[in-house]
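User: Quick sanity check before I run a bigger batch. Here is a single chain. Can you write out its predicted 3D structure?
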Amino acid sequence: MRTIGTLIFVLLVTSSAFCAVEFEDVNFGFNNGYKSGKWTPLHVNLRSQNQPITFSGELTVETRHIYTDEPIFRYATPLQLSKTDRKQNTFYIYCPKTTFKLFMQLDQSGEADKQIETSISVPHVTHEITPPTSIASKDYLVLVLAPSGDKLQRIIDRKQLDDEGTQAHVKYLSNSRAMPTRWIGYDAVDLVILREVSLTDKRVLKSQQSALLDWVQRGGTLILSGGSNFQYLKGSFIEHLLPTKLVREETINNIPTALQNQFGLNSEDNSSTTHVISTFKNIHFEPKQGCHTLLGTDEQIYIAKRDFGSGQIICFAFDYNAPPFSELKAGEVFWKWLLKTHGKSQKLYAERYAPFRQHEEKLHKQFLSKMPTQIPIIKLLSIVLPIYLLSFGGFLLYTVQSGKSSQKRNRNYWIGGLIFVLVSVSAIGLTRVVLPKNITTEKFSILSIYPERKNAHLQSYVSLRTAARTHTSIPLTPNTFIRPLIKKTIAEPPQLSYGPTIQLRDISVEPWRPSTYVMESFFPYDISQNEVQLENVWKISGEKANYLGAITLGRNNPESLESQIRTIEKLPPYDGLSEIQTAYAKILQQEGLLQYLLKDVEVQKRKVLIGWTSQLNQMPSALPIISEDKNDNTIAETFVIMYIDEKGKEI
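Assistant: Done. Predicted structure follows.
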């Protein structure tokens, strides 16, 4: 019996050596394609082997400086793994504007350790990757969802598109299930192309559909291939958003003359190709309202585009992966033309200036400029110090006039001064302990409203300050993402935690400098059901602008107060704004953050409504910031952007 017991013990100890939770696979970006200063998906696959119990713990990911190993930001999610279990965890990582690496760690929770009566436990499991060089801001990150055999990568990948050396980086998704489920996952992507994939609800999840469409509204470009793809487009979730009606699939005996002339398909270099092609599959389009024909006529449209929020949706009548565009020469000519003229929306095209913009640093300085007069402890000192000087001056004057000896006067001076300093410091310390540690929140937001899908995007620059050093957290809605406004040297960075609730934890708020963050969120918002009062409203149409004064969005006639037509060269104008609004408006104008709006409406002949509101806290997207004592004072200014059509109605 003793031998059997010893054998069992040995087997248990031996088996525990093979118990492990390991990193099976880590995929960053889109086949390592990413851009600095953008959010990028990170897929972490974990595997549990021979675990005696269900593993319970937390998976954390840190972005660290590659040379100093300094932590920049941290992400975390709770994790449970059963025996021989595999699990994929997806993080959305903000890529800093510096060389960085990703450090991953798996920690077992303390509760799980208490359940194990033996010495069996899972040690800290770590994994580290260094991403390759990021894609330049001016380049195109093209994400393609297509079956194997797609020739787009061979035709344009890493080839020069213009004299500035701009390139296209083509990355493929393995299948529709690999599409991001959050709009922020496409943040680094300039162009998404869909070809020969089913776009029904069974194949593409609702969350993936919303993520894709939200991204397009924020400035992305979506291209859908035609030809034999008619069966995939018809009845898809994207059909009602296309610029054209899908009438029928048709077969043409030869390459249309419009395509031959545009891309030189009738030249001698391509004569052999044109003779080989006996048929040309095409989708017969009929234009919808808002359709822009890029190639063809209203009777026969080959390429059409529509504006969708700040982005655009483009559809081809033909299949780009079929001859003649699948041929190297013709394909290069076609895609160079398309990418240079329509490959990026005006919003994303303007982001080539992103490396040179200093708006985040300037906004941080703007928040910092308010600190000396608004920190409660400084206010308290400004009251105590004058009292100290007057009282001690009177005390000194009294001792001098009393005729006492020099020794006694000096003794009274130092004893009285020490007592008064102790009383003053005690009063300040007691005040800081007794009074609540209020956190004052200041926000500057840019709110983009999209009435067509009844949603909105909110980008908020947030500053936190308090009377005394404290720790707090920021509760977030599920579709909200947050990062530091500027990089700070801190030993323990805040942690974005994804659990039963999403929050930014372990935020240290100090009285002497603000803690600043950038939050972005998409949320449902029906402008017809929510009236918003705007101040200093302008209707922008090309370089011309109409001053509307104060209006209420959600009412039928936003042009009733139209007056003061003038030419605008830069956005936003800051005449007539309050002091704080003027400060924010000047930063936006100096850094050219909204200059794309003028070019956008000029090219697309659209109109844009812009204005200011202080009603942000009354909206469902207010994203409250709560301190430990549940005391929060919020100051908010919001710049609103909304497109309108030719009739003055929201689109």
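DSSP finds 15 helices and 28 strands in the chain.

User: Great, the batch can go ahead then.
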